[in-house]
Amino acid sequence: MQPFDVHILGCGSALPTRRHMPSCQVVNLRGKLLMLDCGEGAQLSWRHTGLNWQNITHILISHAHGDHVFGLPGLVSTMGLLGRTAPLYVHGPASLHAFIDCVLHDFCRDLSYELRFQPVDTTAHQLLFEDRSMEVWTLPLRHRVPCCGYLIKEKPGLPHIRREMIDFYEVPVWAINRIKAGDDWTAPDGTVVPHQRLTTPPDPVRSYAYCSDTMAFAELAPWIQGADLLYHEATYASSEGALAEKYGHSTALQAATIAHAAGVKRLLLGHFSSRYDDEDILLNEAKAAFPYTSLAREGLCIHL
Questions:
Q1: Which residues contact 173 (CB under 8 A, 6 or more apart)?
Q2: Which of 13, 126, 182, 209 could form a disulfide with 227 if both were Cys (CB 3.0 to 4.6 A apart)?
Q3: pLDDT tens string 172-199
């Protein structure tokens, strides 16, 4: 099965601590790298992944708060210093345009590559972009400023060849790709061997939902239905529910309720308030409503 990995580079909230960095993740889908938010310290955390940051094709920013974008100027500059030539696409709310222009004008005037900023409609659930292996969809979120999560969906792969049947019918190598694409095989004596007899079904498709700063709301569940992994912010415990509502965040129990309603396979909590020295209070609260819950941490890599 092709890789679909989620690397956690930062999972704290606005105030960096000795335990957590601000929000940043990298998704490796079949060797293509997507960065989700780019908080301060993203480059330092990246060093522990072993990934080549020149392979980042898109950076997906959820909203224009510093703990989600302050790592971007340094990363953009470093890519230029290392001689990047491929275009880099940065997606995010339109309010980030001025910030991007400032970075390019004041700090990165002579980049060796083109940075293309593409504004996101934070009010619509729609296809943002796609290629041969994936689709990326927007997830409108509810925060104090325009905010958007992202759903990364793998596209179906090709069926697998049944080697024993290929050998039995003496199918030549040149015909294998056609069979994987759906063609039957016609033997030299005119016998037609159905495509289904020569193949097994492709691997099931996988999906990852990234829901950063947001209040919990029921309308989110249908958009992420059945996701293999949901990252949902859990800034506070239920005892701080008034603060969650005031600042446009969620409690761990609210995140678990969304995960249950959406029928996701796994829930990953993150964006922890610095008030918690031990996030087990959040984990236990969420697991009471959704048992398949774990805590994000820097350096964690989840294989879907």
A1: none
A2: 209
A3: 888 778 877 788 878 888 788 777 887 7
Considering the candidates 37, 67, 213, 228, report the single residue annotated as catalytic. 67
- Three-state helix/strand/coil letters over 197-213: HHEECCCCCCEEEEECC
106 within some domain:
yes
pLDDT digits (tens, 9 = 90+) for 35-60: 999 999 999 898 888 888 789 999 99
The answer to whether the beta carbons of residues 105 and 72 sit under 8 Å apart is no
Domain of 182, in residue numbers: 160-200
pTM as predicted = 0.90
Nearby residues of 11 by Cβ (< 8 Å), 6 or more positions away: 20, 21, 23, 270, 271, 272, 296, 297, 298
**99 and 175 fall within a common domain:** no
The CATH code of the domain that includes 47 is 3.60.15.10
Whether 18 maps to a domain, the answer reads yes
Q: Among 11, 2, 50, 3, which Cα is nearest to 27's?
A: 3
What six digits make up the tokens of 89?
């696409």
* Catalytic residue list contains 110: no
SS3 readout for 259-275: HHHHCCCCEEEECECCC
Half-sphere exposure of residue 32, counting CA atoms within 13 Å on the CB side? 17
List the beta bridge partners of residue 267: 230, 293
Counted domains in the chain: 2
Considering the domain boundaries, does residue 115 fall inside one? Answer: yes
d(CA 242, CA 165): 63
Tokens of 162: 């049944």
